[in-house]
Amino acid sequence: MIYSFKDFIPVIHESSFIHPQACVTGNVIIGKDVYVGPGAAIRGDWGGIVIEDGCNVQENCTIHMFPGVTVMLKEGAHIGHGAVIHGATIGKNCLIGMNAVVMDNVMLGDECIVGALSFIKADEHFDARSLIVGNPAKKIKEVSDEMIAWKTDGTKLYQSLPADMKAHWQECEPLREVPQERPAQEMLYQFWNSLKKRI
């Protein structure tokens, strides 16, 4: 669901995957290898939205702004399921946890991690490598090398997902029973779990 608005047509690199049940409107620029999940609303009507290369905006996220503001998701930003980004700048390789809310004029330095369900109030600025949690959210410590390595490796899975979706994703009719020859699931969970053990 891609819509123009007041002569602004979204610009989306061909390598990115935007789920057809996501909604991208107006003054939006999406770079390379970006994944946007179903239910995401990326609405560039009152201002601009720039999503740089290698970002992911997962299911049911909302990205919007007050008039005249440009929202920035810098390279490799990872926006977890259900998060809201409203008028903020998200630094390179940041992780925004599930159902977190990041409000207007927030500036996150590179490689910050925001905990799930956190609320960052308007006008807050955080230095690079801040671990931010709570409501209202506060920096509780520095992000370690191990934590950012875990985040970066996890984001690489999402950076490979657009190509996988283009190659393997298609609409289908459901089966009515489990087939005997059902394929085995890839062992991505074990990979992810091994990464968690680093931190």
Write a brief structural summary.
InterPro entries: Hexapep, Transf_Hexapept/Carb_Anhydrase, Trimer_LpxA-like_sf. With 199 residues, the protein is of the alpha/beta class.
Question: How would you describe this protein?
Answer:
This is Transferase hexapeptide repeat family protein. Pfam families: Hexapep. By secondary structure, the chain is an alpha/beta fold. It has one domain: Hexapeptide repeat proteins (UDP N-Acetylglucosamine Acyltransferase, domain 1), CATH 2.160.10. The protein has 2 helices and 20 strands. Strands 1, 2, 4, 6, 8, 9, 11, 12, 14, 15, 17 and 18 form a 12-stranded parallel sheet that branches. Strands 3-5-7-10-13-16-19-20 form an 8-stranded mixed sheet. The termini are far apart.
Task: Name the descriptors.
transferase activity, single chain, alpha/beta, 33% strand, 199 residues, 20 strands, UDP N-Acetylglucosamine Acyltransferase, domain 1
Using the coordinates shown, work out and report the CATH topology. Answer: UDP N-Acetylglucosamine Acyltransferase, domain 1
CATH H-level superfamily title: Hexapeptide repeat proteins
Give me the Rg, rounded.
17 Å
Number of separate helices? 2
Calculate the mean pLDDT score and round it. 94
Uncertain segments are: none
Overall tally of structural domains: 1
Helix content: 10-25%
Query: What would you say the CATH architecture is?
Result: 3 Solenoid
Pfam families: Hexapep (PF00132)
GO molecular function: transferase activity
Keywords: Transferase
Protein name: Transferase hexapeptide repeat family protein
